[in-house]
Specification:
Elements: H1 12-17, E1 34-43, E2 46-55, E3 74-76, E4 86-91, E5 94-100, E6 106-111, E7 123-126, E8 144-152, E9 155-162, E10 167-171, E11 178-183, E12 189-197, H2 199-210, E13 224-227, H3 233-245, E14 252-255, H4 276-285, E15 289-294, E16 298-299, H5 305-312, E17 326-329, E18 332-335, H6 342-351, H7 353-357, E19 362-365, E20 395-398, E21 401-404, H8 405-408, H9 412-427, E22 435-437, E23 449-451, H10 459-474, E24 480-481, H11 493-503, E25 510-511, H12 527-542, H13 544-557, E26 562-563, H14 565-568, H15 573-577, E27 582-584, E28 588-590, E29 600-605, E30 609-612, E31 618-620, E32 623-628, E33 636-639, E34 643-647, E35 661-665, E36 670-676, E37 690-697, E38 700-708, E39 716-720, E40 726-729
Parallel strand pairs: 13-14, 13-25, 14-15, 15-19, 19-22, 22-23, 23-24, 35-39
Antiparallel strand pairs: 1-2, 1-3, 2-12, 4-5, 5-11, 6-8, 7-10, 8-9, 9-12, 10-11, 16-18, 17-18, 20-21, 26-27, 27-28, 28-33, 29-32, 30-31, 30-33, 34-35, 36-37, 37-38, 39-40
Helix pairs in contact: 6-9, 11-12
The structure holds alpha-D-glucopyranose.
Alpha-D-glucopyranose binds at residues 132, 228, 256-257, 293, 366, 438, 453-454, 512.
Length: 731
């Protein structure tokens, strides 16, 4: 019999933020009635089994939106499953999954977690949550992705729950070598078990199922500057002026909520930005791209076109009385587009003409968990049961009828970003769109880049950004970063420098802070600090040819840009435990200082020979070294055998196509692939790109074209690390 949910227990703060305050339920009798079946297939080298579950009385298994691949499945009675996977239904709204977690196996991925790389030994609630003050004691975060990878060395398995419903994972917290998952739903769902491959193979298979990011516009990989908020036209123009005049490279200025008319999306403030269009056009002339924030909450205001249209056309979520559901966000009382509906997504997508007409280059989707100020009654406090009996405070429409918000909450940011990207693509079909999102779920990489929300200018958050981004990458999302300098609190010069040292290796490279702290632009400090920041940002630009190559690799294999050491060195037990260092692609090892007032750190080098990025000093791998890293050091080491394409200094990517590129060779024998295209359009999809196999041996450098259909105008040379001579190369 269903247990009634006690409404007094429904409290978002309790449920979503207090980590470890829940216990998995005791094993109970299996009450499952309905249909379930197993199927099997192979994706690449990975065996994939899929369990489809349709509880009695539920409509068809709902569209998860996360999975896009349709391999051919073969129905099987009971597949051979790794790690003793077992499942049952325990209550009308709850499914339990059990699996062995043998000692020594690592647990990875799960989307965005405030955690080390190995998420084992911890409890994880996966429900999309605005968690603006996250720390050790907090649980759910902005991007719940129920994809758990388990294993060690070259043998990994994965469980992927294809459902938008909330779930929670207990990964052997009681040290009984058991993992438990609880999924809270009354609807159908699927579970995928990916078996027996290496970590790269599993991520490749997972991103085959859930899709990959296409190449981002080159400008979006440059330096982005944001703050909550640059309040008016004058400040924004000043900002642009400072960057150019001080020769600090920058491509993008990001406008936070104050560009709007009292936070009404799809408007601008006439008072603060009297000639918005002209400002954007002038900035464009100076090679700045402008990105604007767009939140989902639409101000409840009967004089406001967007609210009137949304209400008239039933585009908003409703309450159980059938009225427009209202929650409070920046604009005050707001209505929330029901992105589950195709018509709503189309309306929202088309509305972006407002921004593209104004010359806006990209869109930043925020608050899309969605965040509701003051409403805490979103989630059952202890998840003792699923919200069949939950007060229907917010309802969505879907193919199979009205749906409670909680069951699809995890999809909200994902579908909002999808709609945003579709809007930009419909308006500018041959321009790569740039969408940034705070919330997202399985497959979000197809639609947007992500950042990890409201961090703090704390060393703890600087350090945590590494394992957090590594797990985000293993969850399928390559284009990710955190606010450089930290969002909350004052960023003192030292942490800003340390943050840039690491941040130049974040795939998404944006400095952003809140309204309460001091300005933390690279030039907001004394000249010596500015000088160091400039040098680091220039280094980012010099790495752009390498970074775009990594995105190309992601498109082909699903590999993230930031990779745990175990990705490349799976049999090195020490390397596998490290999460304060990472590989940036296969050739660069990054080991930053993430502590205040430290000038030395221990760097572990896996097998091979490694070269200091700046000094070319050599280190023989297989052991740690203590390395001196004064403020401003580029904390990177290059693998012997690599060839890095390094661009000359530019101020913005508008200068990229003519900047000279030097292929820097590390060692006596080296090889690499080099990719280039126009960086803006989708022409690469019809073959307009170049790809070369570069090699160096016996003092000879060769570049063999694998594909050559793009007319590049850069000049090229090669240089052997440690040697000052550079030699022209004809491509
Ligand atoms: C949220 C975002 C932050 C933004 C602020 C104001 O806190 O996470 O990045 O600056 O809202 O829009």
């Amino acid at each position: 019999m269903d247990q009634q949910l006690d409404e007094s227990k429904v409290d978002l703060k309790e449920a979503s933020t207090k980590r470890r305050m829940w216990k998995p339920h005791e094993r109970q009798k299996n009450v499952f009635k309905g249909n379930s079946h197993w199927e099997q297939t192979k994706i690449g080298d990975v065996d994939v089994a899929r369990l489809s579950v349709l509880p009695q009385g539920a409509a068809l298994i709902p569209d998860s939106f996360g999975v896009i691949a349709t391999p051919s499945w073969k129905e099987v009675k009971q597949p051979t499953l790794p790690f003793g996977f077992d499942w049952q239904q325990t209550l009308a709204g709850r499914f339990d999954f059990y699996f062995e977690l043998k000692k020594g196996l690592r647990c990875l991925a799960l989307g965005e977690r405030f955690s080390g790389l190995n998420v084992r030994g911890e409890k994880h609630t996966l429900i999309s949550t605005d968690n603006p003050h996250h720390d050790e004691s907090m649980d759910s975060m902005y991007k719940p992705i129920p994809f758990l990878v388990v294993g060690s060395q070259n043998k990994f398995f994965a469980i992927f729950i294809d459902s938008s419903a909330p779930s929670r994972f207990d990964l052997d917290t009681e040290l009984t070598e058991e993992g438990r998952i609880e999924l809270f739903t009354r609807r159908g769902f699927r579970v995928y078990i990916l078996g027996g491959g290496t970590l790269p193979q599993l991520v490749e298979a997972f991103t085959t199922l859930t899709g990959r990011a296409k190449l981002p516009p080159l400008w979006s990989l440059g330096h982005q500057q944001c703050r909550w908020s640059y309040p008016n036209e004058e400040t924004v123009r000043e900002l642009a002026h400072e960057f150019r005049q001080r020769k600090i490279p920058c491509d993008t200025l990001v406008l936070d909520i104050d560009y709007m008319d009292e936070y009404r999306v799809f408007t601008t403030s006439k008072k603060a930005f009297p000639d918005f269009k002209k400002m954007i056009a002038d900035l464009k002339k100076d090679n700045f791209n402008v990105v604007t924030i767009v939140d989902p909450g639409v101000k409840v205001d009967d004089q406001y076109k967007h609210f009137i249209d949304g209400k008239k056309n039933n585009f908003f979520c409703k309450n159980k009385e059938g009225e427009v559901f209202q929650g409070k966000v920046w604009p005050g009382d707001s209505a929330f587009p029901d992105f589950l509906k195709d018509e709503t997504r189309k309306w929202w997508a088309d509305s972006h003409k407002f921004y593209t007409d104004a010359g806006i280059a990209g869109i930043w989707n925020d608050m899309n968990e969605p965040a509701f100020f003051g409403i805490t009654k979103v989630l059952p406090a202890d998840f003792s049961e699923m919200p069949g009996q939950h007060p229907d405070f917010c309802l969505h429409d879907a193919q199979d009828g009205k749906i409670q918000h909680l069951e699809v909450r995890n999809l909200y940011g994902f579908l909002m970003s999808r709609s945003t990207q579709e809007g930009l693509l419909a308006i500018r079909p041959n321009e790569r769109p740039f969408v940034l999102t705070r919330s997202g779920s399985t497959g979000i990489q197809r639609y947007a880049a992500v950042w990890l929300g409201d961090n703090k200018s704390w060393y703890e958050h600087l350090g945590k950004s590494i394992p957090m981004l590594l797990n985000v990458g293993l969850s399928g999302i390559p284009f990710a970063g955190v606010d450089i300098g930290g969002f909350w609190d004052d960023a003192l010069p030292e942490i800003v420098i340390r943050w840039y040292e690491l941040g130049i290796f974040y795939p998404f490279f944006r400095n952003h802070c809140s309204l309460s702290g001091r300005g933390q632009e690279a030039y907001a400090y004394a000249p010596n600090v500015e000088g160091i920041a400039r040098k680091l940002i220039e280094t980012r630009y010099s790495l752009l040819p390498y970074i775009r190559g990594l995105f190309w690799e992601h498109m082909r294999t699903g590999a993230p840009l930031m990779r745990p050491l175990m990705w490349h060195f799976p049999t090195d037990a020490i390397a596998c435990d490290i999460d304060d260092q990472f590989m940036f692609g296969s050739d660069i090892l990054v080991a930053p200082i993430v502590e205040r007032a430290h000038e030395y750190r221990t760097v572990y080098f896996p097998a091979g020979t490694w070269y200091h990025f700046e000094t070319n000093e050599k280190y023989e791998g297989g052991r740690p070294y203590v390395i001196n890293m004064p403020l401003g050091t580029v904390p990177a080491f290059v693998r012997e055998g690599a060839i890095l394409p390094i661009a000359d200094v530019i101020q913005h990517t508008g200068e990229y196509s003519t900047t000279p590129i030097t292929f820097k060779v590390f060692g006596k024998k080296a090889a690499a692939r080099f990719f280039e295209d126009d960086g803006i359009t989708f022409d690469y999809e019809t073959g307009k790109y170049n790809e070369y196999e570069l090699s160096y041996a016996d003092g000879q450098f060769t570049a063999k074209p694998v594909h050559k259909e793009y007319a590049a105008s850069n000049k090229y040379a090669y240089q052997v690390a440690g040697d000052n001579k550079s030699t022209t190369v004809q491509l």
